[in-house]
Design goal:
The complex is a heterodimer of chains A (149) and B (192). Chain A has 149 residues and is mainly α. Chain A has two domains: 49 residues, no CATH class; 65 residues, no CATH class. Chain A is built from seven helices and two strands, in the order H-H-H-H-H-H-E-H-E. A two-stranded antiparallel sheet of chain A has the order 1-2. In chain A, helix 3 crosses helix 4. Chain B is an all-alpha fold. Chain B has two domains: 89 residues, Orthogonal Bundle (Rna Polymerase Sigma Factor, Chain: A), CATH 1.10.1740.10; 91 residues, Winged helix-like DNA-binding domain superfamily/Winged helix DNA-binding domain (Arc Repressor Mutant, subunit A, Orthogonal Bundle), CATH 1.10.10. The longest helix of chain B is centred in the last third of the chain and has 26 residues. The radius of gyration of chain B is 19 Å and the shape is elongated. Chains A and B meet through helix 4 and helix 5 of A and helix 2, helix 3, helix 7, helix 8 and helix 10 of B.
């Protein structure tokens, strides 16, 4: 084995990932080659140092900044759930019924608060379209009531 | 013991107590920030990416399997987000540059009969230098070295993550270490 080959296999050699016979070849080579021996020793120290590098310190108040975002996210998801929960559960019921799945214990469990994928199922929503003159239309019935899936 | 504590905190989060997440953030903030820093290469962006990584973890906390350790999961999220960040910033050019002048410049070592000064370095001196010097490596060497030697990812994983062939990855790892060694030798020469 020549020096070039030894150096190309150095990482795997240092991590004992080479087949036994290849490692033996490298051992034989390094007994004769001082340069490769020195290179392997230096790399061993370098790799070991890299794997034990201490962590950098996170900025001051980093945890506060993250928690602000987490709490905002939580509140937003709670608000969404509050306003959508009735329709979510109704939709879930319709989906279960449409799929001929008995709304038994599984169905009841799916309709609890933690059931979140209903957000991605189209929900029926009512949309009211008023006339062009808003002032006037307030005293009148809406022109049309839309029903959208 | 720490894993049990993590598990309890995460179960609390899954049960609707977001404040429990603070314990997780406080425990992993240095690790997550360091990983992001070593990949994106500066403190300002690293802070943003690290915050985003925690928020992403929180949003997905319901699907986290509490039987598994949290550390590899948050590390993987951080690595993902950091590499995504680099992609958005540099449109992948940083990995495809074929110009290796920077490698040549950094690794030119004056041939000498003297023993390599690196051999005499104490472990603590090396650690101290490495922490600073790794930040000065070009991105295409710094990222593979961080993922392979610090984050302990495999060649296959890194190659897939960075979308580069295995041969290119090994070349970057080799050249990155050569460049690091050259920088350490320079540092020693300046000090002497």
């Amino acid at each position: 084995m020549d020096c070039r080959k030894v150096l190309s296999l150095m990482d795997e050699y240092l991590e004992n990932k080479l087949p036994e016979e290849v490692s033996q070849e490298i051992n034989l080579h390094t007994k004769e080659c001082v340069n490769c021996m020195a290179e392997i020793n230096i790399n061993r120290v370098l790799v070991s140092a890299l794997s034990t590098l201490p962590d950098k310190k996170a900025p001051v108040r980093f945890a506060d900044a993250v928690m602000n975002q987490v709490l905002t996210e939580y509140e937003e998801s709670e608000n969404n759930e509050d306003s959508e929960s009735i329709m979510d559960r109704l939709t879930a019921f319709w989906v279960l019924t449409a799929q001929s799945v008995k709304p038994s214990l599984t169905g009841v469990k799916m309709m609890t608060r933690s059931f979140s994928f209903t957000k991605y199922i189209p929900r029926p929503t009512f949309r009211i379209r008023w006339g062009d003159d808003r002032q006037e239309s307030l005293t009148k019935l809406p022109l049309a009531v839309g029903f959208r899936w | 013991m720490d894993d049990i504590r993590d598990r309890d905190l995460i179960i609390n989060c899954q049960n609707g107590d977001p404040s429990s997440f603070r314990g997780i953030v406080e425990r992993y903030q240095n690790k997550v920030y360091s990983t992001a820093f070593r990949i994106v290469g500066n403190s300002y962006d690293a802070e943003d990416v690290a915050q985003e990584a925690f928020l992403t973890a929180y949003k997905a906390i319901d699907i986290f399997d509490t039987e598994k350790p949290f550390s590899p999961w948050i590390t993987r999220i951080t690595v993902n987000m950091s590499i995504d960040f680099l992609r958005r910033q540099k449109s992948q050019k940083w990995l495809l540059e074929s110009d290796d002048n920077d490698f040549q410049n950094m690794s030119n070592r004056i041939k000498s009969e003297e023993p390599d000064p690196l051999e005499k370095l104490e472990a603590w001196e090396l650690l101290d230098m490495l922490g600073k010097l790794i930040e000065n490596l070009p991105t295409k060497y710094r990222v593979p070295i961080t993922l392979y030697h610090i984050e302990d990812m495999t060649y296959d994983e890194i190659s897939e993550f960075l979308e580069i062939p295995m041969g290119t990855l090994k070349t970057y790892l080799y050249r990155g270490k050569e460049a690091l060694k050259a920088m350490i030798r320079n540092e020693i020469a300046v000090k002497v």
